[in-house]
Structure prediction request, 367 residues.
Amino acid sequence: MPRALLAVLVLLGVALSGCLRNDPADGTLTPTTPGAEADSCTNVPAPTWSQQDAALRGANAFDYVIGLICDHSGGAPKERARVPGTPQQVQGAAYLHGELKEAGWNAQFQNFTGAQYDTIMQARGGSHAQWWRDCTAADQVRMRGLPFSNVEARFGSGSRIVLLMAHWDSKRFADGDSDAKRRTEPVLGANDGASGVGLLLELARVLAKEPASTTWQYRILLTDGEDGFEDCHPLAGSTYYAEGLSAAERTLFQAILLLDMVGDEDAGFYRGCGSDTALGDRLWTVAARLDVRQFKNTTGCNGITDDHTPFEDRSMKSVDVIDYHFGEGFPSYWHTTGDTPDKISPDMLGAVGRVVQQTLKELPIAP
Prediction:
């Protein structure tokens, strides 16, 4: 099916489902209010990657990032901040679903509401529950009415599951900005979220060109609602997905890998995020062999709460590859309006992608 037609059909399917909708106007400043500054996507060319290339390319991953964060559907390209409850969220979900289907994966939406997430948190909570409990009454009401949409895709017929994750949403307000006006604007999230998504889309494209494994089933989970720590829905998508797994299903997950903020050319990936030391050893050993020096052989995660956390809360081991500079924290533009396409390095995406790709090839066959 032609890409353009597929995208139109998918977009209509999401919109008609009723699970994704725009919040009614309440008279307050919203994340979609235009800013005075120039749009960071205006001069960014439309993606031009080829589905035929069998090699993993950082440039392709970058194009997938651009396809998610910049809307080239008509006129001048414009920023697409994927804030839950906005039309841009609908467009983003449709884009992801379409690209995974185009790559040959069995892709589906996992739609849910803030009310369903709230029910999980009320009953169980987790290590990220404090942000949820600290929300104001008004924020809790707004949260319960929000729509969310995870996008999951599967490839391979094996009974042992490898789960690859990244979050695709972006923050409603740039609370990290020093300028008061910019703190009312949304975060584009080029690195914080979209970089991992772009890399997984490229990995999906490449893996689909190999024979489907009868030992492994690869799953890609692109989560919605991760960046809701100030909006009363922290880690919404990963929490909903992990809670929906039965005890028997959870035993099938042999490797869980989260990629978050993996596109900065000055990235530093420290060990220790997640409890799967065996998978961590493999990743960092492969990185050393491939001379990807951004994988620091030092423990410096400091208990970061991220999309791997709900799985850890449910006794599932994981690894989080996240850009966190020991002693310094996250990149300076984190959670600001400065998280734009110019912060993404195709070379870095390619380097991290090759580490992940080679690690997958070396996963042990025996249980």
About this structure: Residues 87-102 form the longest helix (16 residues). The two ends are 39 Å apart (CA to CA).
